[in-house]
Amino acid sequence: MEFAIYDLRLRGLILRPEFPPTPERGFMRIARQKPNIGRLDPRLITLLGVAVGLLLILLYINTAIKFPTFVKFLINGLVESAILFLMASGLSLIFGLMDVVNFAHGAVFTWGGFVFIWAFNRFTTSSAEAKDKESVVAWMQMGLDPLPATLLALVLALLASAVLGAAIEFLAIRRLYGRPVFQILLTLGLVLVLDEALRIVFSLSSSSYDFQATPWPGGNFKPSPEILVNWKSVAIVVLGLLVFGGVFWLLNRTKVGLVIRGGVEDSQMVQALGYNVKRYFFGVFVLGSILAALGGVAYAVGSSGGNESMGQLNLLTAFVVVVIGGMGSFSGAAIGALMVGLITPFIGYHFQAIADSFVMILLVLVLLVRPQGLFGGKKY
Amino acid sequence: MSHEHEGQSSVLSPQSSVLPLLTLEDVHTYIGQFHILQGIKLEVPPGAVTVLLGRNGAGKTTTLKTIMGLTPARQGTINFNGASLNRLTTYEIARNGIGYVPEDRGIFRDMSVEENLLLAARGEKPADYRRRLEFCIDLFPDMRRFLRQKAGTLSGGQQQMVAISRSLMVDNRMILIDEPSKGLAPIVVKAVIDALQKLKTHVTILLVEQNFTMASTVGDYFYLIDDGHNVTNGPMAQLIADQELTRQYLGVGGQGKFRAED
Question: Which residues have C-beta within 8 Å of that of residue A95, sequence separation ≥ 6?
Answer without folding.
Answer: A101, A102, A322, A327, A328
